[in-house]
Write a structure and sequence with these properties.
The complex is a heterodimer of chains A (1045) and B (458). Chain A is α/β, with parallel strands linked by helices and 1045 residues long. Chain A contains 32 helices and 41 strands. Chain B has one domain. In chain B, helix 4 crosses helix 5 (154-187) and helix 9 (289-320) packs across helix 10. Chain B is globular. Classes of the chains: A alpha/beta (1045), B mainly alpha (458).
Amino acid sequence: MSDMNHHHTDQELEFKKSLRPQTSRDEKYWQSLEEYSKDPEFMKLAQTEFMSSPLSEDSKDESEGGWARREFLKLMGASLAMATASCVRRPVQKIVPYSKQPEEVTLGVPNYYTSTYFDGSEALGVLIKTREGRPLKLEGHSDHIITQGGTSARSQAAILSLYDPERLKGPRKNLFNEKRTNKDMVDTTWDKADAAISEQLKKGGVAILTGALASPATRSVVGEFCQAFKADHYSWEALAHDDVRAGQKAAYGEDLVPVYHFDRAKMIVSIDADFLGTWLTPVTFTKQFSKTRKDFSKMSRLVVFDSNYSLTGANADIRVRIKPSLQLDAVMGLLHELVVVQGKSSYAGNTQLKSNLASFASSAKKLGMEPELLKRIANDLWENRGQSLVVAGGLAASTAHSLSLQVAVNLLNSILENDGKTVEGTHGLAALKGSNEGLLELVKKMNKGEVKTLIIHRSNPIYGLTEKSGFAEALKKVEMVVCTSDRMDEVSQYAHYILPDNHALETWSDAEIAPGVYSLQQPTLRSMYDTRSVQLGLMTWAFLAKQGPQRLLAYETFYDYLRNFWKEEIFPKYGKGLSFDAFWDKALQEGYVGEEKNAGARGFKAESLTQIKNVKSLDEGYELVLYPTVQLGDGSQSNIAWLFELPDPITKITWDNYVSVSLATAQKLNVKDGSLMKLEVGEDSLELPVHVQPGLHDGVLAVAVGYGRMMGGEVGKGVGKNAYQLAQVVNGKVIHSGLPVKATVLKGTYKLAQTQQHHSMEGRQIIVEATLKDYEKKKEHLIHRHHTWNIWSGHQYNGNKWGMAIDLNSCTGCSACMVACQSENNIPAVGKKYVMQGREMHWIRVDRYFTGSPENAETVFQPVMCQHCDNAPCETVCPVLATVHTDDGLNAMVYNRCVGTRYCANNCPYKVRRFNWFNYAKLIEKPMHMALNPDVTVRVRGVMEKCTFCVHRISQAKDKARQEDRKLRDGDIKTACQTACPTDAIVFGDMNDPESKLSKRFKDERAYALLEEWHAAPAVRYMAKIRNNGQESKSAETHNKGEHA
Amino acid sequence: MIKRNQLVLGNKSLKDITDDICAPVESVPSKGWVGIFLVSKTMLLFYVFVLGMIVAHGMGLLGVNHPVGWGTMIITFVFWIGIGHAGTLISAVLFLFRQKWRTSVARSAEAMTVFAVMTAGLFPLLHTGRPWLDFWLFPYPNQRGPLWVNFRSPLLWDVFAVSTYATVSMVFWFIGLVPDFATIKDRAKTKVRRAIYGALSLGWRGTARNWSHYEMLYLLLAGLSTPLVLSVHTIVSFDFAVSNLPGWHTTIFPPYFVAGAIFSGFAMVVTLMTFLRIGYPEFRDYITIDHMEVMNKIIMTTGLMLGYAYGAEFFVAWYSGNPYERYVFMNRAGIPGTSGDYAWSYWMMIMCNVVIPQLFWFKKVRRNITAMFIISIFVNIGMWFERFVITVTSLHNDFLPSNWGNYAWSFWDGAVIFGSFGMFLTLFMLYLRFVPAISIAEIKPVLNVGRDDHKGGH
């Protein structure tokens, strides 16, 4: 037995080695005397992946079999139960592909690996920063063809889920009683579980329920597994896009989510599609959108019809507040204007359409907007046909009439000749197959007893779907439920076997980031616990049951399968004369292969027009709007405190969801922030605190989903309420918004933790904002400049002088920078209680102000961090010189010296300093300490902290330049917030270098210093925001006049 | 010639004076004293517990936060430092001006100063994030390279100002006590008592040489203390005035703070003297209504000065054209268009410090013990709120509205204030028990002032 093992391992290792690129060693340079003398021992060692093995000490000698003692004991136990030695499929995978850094792991020098991060909706090309073999941070991969370096708040927080103390440490089994009312979880072994499951699978009636699968190789494994067991594959996501897919199917015949190209659009109309925040692939969209906003001579225009105050709405040039029942009016109103009033397009003679549009003649009035404005929007669309884009979607558009809306949107895009240009629907996003309807079908099947085995992977309908779907009940009728959750959550508690999947950072995989563009996901550390990738699980079961296609059974690890899959499926298409090994290496080094597919326009099916039904909008009462937030998304990252503590970009509320009401509604119902309200939708009800939101439609009650998890982690347990439960199932369709909702005001109040309580700039020049027309007229007079003078000559900066420029015109407020900073700089989350006391620790915050009338408020964002002032007010008042000026212009904070008088914080006009009120570092639970960045001190209680301009990155870049015997180049240093930003709003650089990107930005006429007249002489410049609404502002200096409070 | 009122009533003989003043020190303490002492001592123990908790867990227990980085501890520090001022003013400044009425209240006022400064001195030390490193605030020779303090920081000036003030006022108080300690030693009936008071009296023998040296030293110390009356609170005000925060950055702060300090100090003296008169009826002959009236006049005068300062601040905020400063002051008063979250504290301050002391225009009120006691309590409250207004309202709504937030008042804030009174009262009760509360040596020379047999004058 053990001989077989032995043999097996040797063979495996040899195989692995043969796959590895051979390291050819340069003869000219030698590392050591051993290498110089070609010492055989050394040469053998040099051919291994690691000069020193990452395996534990006693398993280091690979020829000995390489089993750690613990694993050996486990095997011994398992071997008793096992019939054949070949069953032992224990992958030993080691991973050392480098893309940026030299191959040696040098202590203190981070290594970066290209990889992908998939959050259930969007796959991002990322770089994973590791130090001494442990992943620390996800960075944007700026050379990636699709995502081009952006990240989101949630992807930045993913690292914490790897080190989540509540992850399952190994396979578990549920000792159900007959009625499955109890939950007795016991540890089990992989082998026992595998044997039981493979036996069960042979009985047939297999179904797999997964979340969205971005990985083509995984989809292939699942497909082949389904083939093997005649299983059905269902894909479900809480934020499924049934509406978009149904609309596409009706209008063009293809059931898919199309690819949108915002970078090609000069005129964008969004109806509740929060494409900058949460819809489809928001990071990529944000990147694309931001590119159309940088050149003012051809700046794009964004019009948003917004039921909730979304992040996209906040960035709109023209925002129209609506309620869900008016969504169709927005699109049909535009169509009416174009087709009926102006007689444009070939559809002008279509009688069916005309009759459809007849009732939308007065849409503008219904929408509460000037008819002139609707006409302007329509004209803009027409003038930019082929370069415009109309989108609708998201939970707020998941209504009873969503098909009408989607068909109308598709028609509008086709009329505007956008299809095939800004909308690419021939290929579509293969990952986004998640479907509520599919799930409801599965429930039916389960109820009929047709499903004997259900394998659930990365899918949690018990939390994310209304109870009325009957999923939880139906689950009890399944003989065996296998769940691959990495924790005990709402769904895994009903599973017979919980076989925890590897974390994405521990496992090989791939992703189709856009049609034709593929990226690999590489593991950056060995599995921390006794977990196994779900793909290997499926392969193992097929292998044990001896069923399935050859390819599924041939490989012992998913890595091998993946390589082969790429060799067979992707390499032939994109290999272009490379050997496969070279192609594979290229994919790992560059982070992607292939290029985006483009396709032509599709024919709009005129018969789909019959699908457009009128929507009766309620004059009285309120409509429900559900929406996902930028910070929590669908709610799957429920154990990450960073995300709960990240203030919502619009409301600035942390740690809760709430019902947003408009000012007029608040007045009518006599409620204010923190009043309690009971929402009743059908038979469901939810009690929530109220938040009064400027700019909301008076007929809307908006609630965020993603909160109210009861299982899945201590952090998110019971935070907020689960608003998914307000969704309704109507005619086999899950409806989230537009439902009539009854609001009852309850007694009592509930305190919400808001990080910003004042929402007006009080007429101060804080964020300079102008319309494009104003800007073109005023140019350098846009900003009120102050005359400042100094009796002191100031600091001399002879070398570098670091500075930062933030383009407020690019910033969308997405807050990825805040989480990136938190991850980079070991910033603690303090919890709701202390956020309420004003003790959040963010070094960079995104200030949000409302402008204009409160009913129709517009939003502006401003990221604020330490301004590194030349005349820093903090420096003079510290009695112990704990905060001092460096000769390259940084305001340095010496934690060791700080006694914590907090005088510096009081004297800081920007209030960017954060104090350690308690010993937060003490609360870091193992293994979360592994996520700490070793380059940054973990602060003790009682000291002040603040943004350092990522001083450790500056020194690293300097060290690197010195080693390479060159000067620092512009762009060598990128701060954490800068790399996280999907819009390139943040630029860091040397003010003393006149050629640097930074210096050029500083010279821009839009650049200004915050509180310039106070003459702290900050090293940060902001650049004025420009709103392209086609108008001149009514008062020339809106930003300088008092706005509403 | 206007007839002078007698400074000491009751036709006392010299022996009567010694007997009267030594009585509390030499007799078994009354039930009242024991009761108050037990209460104060319990408060002190509670205070020790509270401070221990704060040192153990961190400043987070208090309501200080972002943006209000300073709170109860700094407010209460300035409050107690301010109270300390009256003692030095009475004992040093009035001594130099030869105001003979000062003699009967000087000792207790000075004691109050010493104890108030002791109480105050703890706050800046404990309100740091890492109090165990407070010694870094002192410029002492060290081995951390030439790591020195920042002489540009007003907090450092504060360290010097307060420590100097504490030292000088303690020495001054103690020197004044030497002849009286000798008196108690002479009257002592037990050896232990004799030994202790003997040691405290530094070998005082009452010779002409002793007296000559004593008076010269007393005069010198008075001269040394006088500038301190002005400097200490000036420098404390620099903590605020030298910063760049609107509402803090004001040139009027030094005189305004000194006036406020004298105002609050005299109010506290009136409060304590009222207690003294109740607890020790024999002292009514020494601390007469006339004394109280003079102090009330000072309270009224300094109250008017404060009123002027409050007005001047508003004028300057408007006149400067600085929008941030204008906002801060409008916000303090709660003028519509501002948040006005702390307007109540501002109007409380105006009420207590400016309006209520105007009652002292009436002679009847000035000479009514109950009335003056109530007013003095209001002034004490008002002066605490003045510091609250300055510290909190300036910080809570400053430059960027996104930062605006309120102080997160907690149980521990209240506990700190409450406990600090425990410390002060315990010290004061012990002082009444072990130290003659009126200067025996100084009261005897003024015995004849205003006495009838001298037909007025002196």
